[in-house]
Amino acid sequence: MSVSSVIRRVAGAWLDGDLLYRFRRSPVAVAAAALGALLVLAALGADLLAPYDAFDPASANAADARLPPGSQGLFGETYALGTDPQGRDMLSAMLYGLRTSLVVGVASVGLAAVMGVLLGLVAGYCGGLIDAIIMRTADVQLGFPAILIALLIDGVTRAVLPREVHERFAMPVLIVAIAASYWVQYARTVRGLVLVERRRDYVLAARVTGVSTPRTLFAHILPNVLGPILVIATINLALAILTESTLSFLGVGLPATQPSLGSLVRIGNEFVFSGDWWISTLPGLLLVLLSLSVNIFGDWLRDALNPKLAQ
């Protein structure tokens, strides 16, 4: 059984149940999902919605730098949300920055989920020395904040790679750094669930009938533990976006030529006391809306998939 068929089967089981009904009965969850979907569509359609290409240096005019919202440029351009210190249109930079932050967040959460789920399945099903090594590694990592681990990985790559190479691969490095900070939650959760599931009759029957270990893990056990994984991934998406923004704000994330919401806030922070409030405030507000919508929807999903709260 392929992974796609497993996902379709689980998704169909949820939609056929009362999950969709409870979602419709929760105005807060509907509003959060609608806001999140709107922001995702805006990010995906940045090429069509943005008046200018934020990655094209030719679209930035230094003479139009730090113009307030609603201003007109030297050649008659209208900047609805103003410009940044480089003369880039803030609306365009925010749309492209939103897409960058979402790409980093989704990719890092997906990578962390794959790492954590695989390690959790192996640790819970095999037990013994393998379980001890994986879980003790997770315990050690829990002693360090996620931001410090991401800073450590980013710092090592900066020391090893030349500056030009690091800037070229800044996004993949950032994705790996954030993913390495959040795999522990998936591994510990999945391990605990597998310890329970491996004693179920369907797993014992699979063993007796000669089903291979990989098939038992991915075709039989994994579909029954996807609920908590989805909840963790939803909540971690907001945390990953905030982590990327924090790293970019500290100057160790994405370069200024590759705008993200965090880098835009960092650039604008240098001009707050000069009265140019829009450069940092508008990207910061967009970041708050994105994180808030994902967090609210994740909290609702956690409660909706909790059988004790669903009764």
TrEMBL record:
One of its GO terms (biological process) is transmembrane transport. This is Oligopeptide transport system permease protein OppC. It comes from Methylobacterium symbioticum. Belongs to the binding-protein-dependent transport system permease family. Keywords: Cell membrane, Membrane, Transmembrane, Transmembrane helix, Transport. Residues 98-298 form the ABC transmembrane type-1 domain. The keyword Acetylation does not apply. One of its GO terms (cellular component) is plasma membrane. Gene3D superfamilies: MetI-like (1.10.3720.10). It is found in: Cell membrane. It is a multi-pass membrane protein. CDD domains: TM_PBP2 (cd06261). The keyword Magnesium does not apply. The chain crosses the membrane at residues 28-46, 102-130, 142-161, 173-196, 217-242, 277-298.
